[in-house]
Design brief:
Structural class: alpha/beta
Number of helices: 12
Shape: globular
Bound molecules: 5'-deoxyadenosine, iron/sulfur cluster
Number of strands: 20
CATH topology of the largest domain: Transcription Regulator spoIIAA
CATH class of the largest domain: Alpha Beta
Largest sheet: 6 strands, mixed
Radius of gyration: 22 Å
């Protein structure tokens, strides 16, 4: 989502005649597009701001620094007070102000705009995209789910969907520019609603665009995953990819309830079974949080049990970090840091085992690969991705980026698949 937002910001700046440079030393303006989802993301920004401040003091004294995005929304004035060298702070709905701020002489006074809009969708802007394989397209902004640990509903505001016409127009333009894959984005992508239908109708329309080789989306909420979406996966493969990133967060019903996730592990498991019976090759990946307030050893064991039951292809796993202002932040953080670390490490080991086993099961099987680029380790090899979103390394002979090829998997190591001659 932040990559997409940065592309929107770049488009706004380019419209005003600004150009991208390759390093902060050469920049008139440096914008940091920030994330607040976990404490670590915010810490990284503080470190980066410190580094930029040194560049400003030593080599680039006229450089203007702006902080935009969720952290700007979240920390607002405190960020301005603590960092006097930051010129402006804009929340996720205020990017349209950037050109105005830069061209008016207001850079001498400091600007803060963290007004959240119930309307802003950045419609009519074509993001300044970099690479030529995948185009991110945001179909909705904000979130109304209010999971108790999550800051997003506070930093990105209420959920609103773009019109399907606007999305289709952007998709066609991206395809005309040479992008062959589209990934639809939303905090809660499958609760998409427009006058011409819901998420499954949108997927169906996009899947039929000529020139589009692959269609993906992230992230759906288990509660809003319905039969129609599963049917589109089944009917529109291979354009609609065999991959669903379906955040589970916990395998304990009491923790899921405390998180306000609105489903039980039983419901999630039946959903996975339904998906896999419709599309047996579907890869399912997830997000997990360990150490949510009140998580007992039993809750944690239930979560590992659930991971054994589902056997995810891959997972992003996080230690819970309290986000001030969320409902969970006022709960007592009962799980000590060292216990969180132990739980996380054991979870990662279990997931690594599942990932490897899932990938080893592909050895000897033919898969379709979308070629992306030269392998970083060996110029005689290239890398690409399966429909299931797994990375494959294969010989560079007679293939070029954006080709769809079919190859037999010969080896699997960690998260990577290999197809050797
Ligand atoms: N602590 C830890 N992980 C979090 N996530 C969201 N908020 C928090 C938090 N406070 C994780 C969830 C979500 C992913 C994007 O980040 O797993 O799905
Ligand atoms: Fe956060 Fe929950 Fe919304 Fe995802 S669905 S963005 S975790 S509140």
């Amino acid at each position: 989502m932040n990559v997409y937002d940065s592309e929107i910001i770049a488009a706004l700046l380019q419209e005003k005649g600004l150009e991208e440079v390759t390093s902060p030393e050469k920049a008139d303006v440096v914008l940091l597009n920030t994330c607040s989802v976990r404490e670590l993301a915010e810490q990284k920004i503080h470190t980066r701001l410190g580094q930029l401040r040194i560049i400003q003091e030593t080599t680039n004294p006229t450089m203007i620094m702006g902080v935009v995005g969720c952290m700007a929304q979240n920390l607002k004035k405190s960020l301005l007070q603590k960092k006097p060298y930051i010129t402006f702070i804009l929340g996720p709905d205020s990017y349209r102000n950037i050109p105005k701020i830069l061209t008016s002489n207001r850079t001498s006074s400091r600007v803060i705009d963290t007004h959240l809009s119930s309307m802003e969708l950045y419609d009519g802007l074509f993001p300044a995209r970099h690479e030529g394989i995948n185009a991110w397209i945001s179909i909705s902004r904000g979130c109304d789910k209010f999971c108790t640990y999550c800051i997003v509903p506070y930093t990105r505001g209420r959920e609103r969907s773009r019109s399907s016409e606007s999305i289709l127009q952007e998709a066609k333009r991206a395809i005309d520019k040479g992008f062959v894959e589209i990934t639809l984005l939303g905090q809660n992508v499958n609760s998409y609603r427009s006058s011409s239908g819901g998420f499954s109708e949108l997927l169906l329309q996009l899947a039929q665009l000529s020139g589009l080789k692959r269609l993906r989306y992230t992230s759906p909420h288990p509660q809003d995953m319905n039969d129609d979406v599963i049917a589109v996966h089944k009917d529109y493969y291979p354009v609609v990819c065999d991959h669903i990133h379906l955040p589970l967060q916990s395998g304990s019903n009491s923790i899921l309830k405390a998180m306000n996730r609105t489903y039980t592990w039983e419901h999630y498991l039946s959903l996975v079974e339904k998906i896999r019976s419709a599309v047996p090759t579907m890869s399912i990946t997830t997000d997990m949080i360990v150490g949510f307030p009140g998580e007992t050893e039993k809750d944690y064991e239930d979560t590992l049990d659930m991971m054994e039951k589902v056997r995810f292809d891959a997972a992003f796993m996080f230690k819970y970090s309290p986000r001030p202002g969320t409902k969970a932040a006022i709960l007592v953080d009962t799980v000590p840091e060292d216990v969180k670390s132990v739980r996380l490490n054991r979870m990662i080991r279990l997931q690594n085992k599942h990932t490897l086993e899932k990938n080893q099961a592909l050895i000897g099987k033919k898969v379709e690969i979308l070629v992306e680029k030269e392998s970083t380790k060996n110029p005689y090899e290239m890398m690409g991705r399966t429909s299931t979103n797994k990375i494959v390394i294969f010989p560079a002979l007679k293939v070029k980026p954006k080709d769809l090829i079919t190859r037999t998997i010969t080896d699997a190591q960690g998260v990577t698949l290999f197809s050797k001659p």
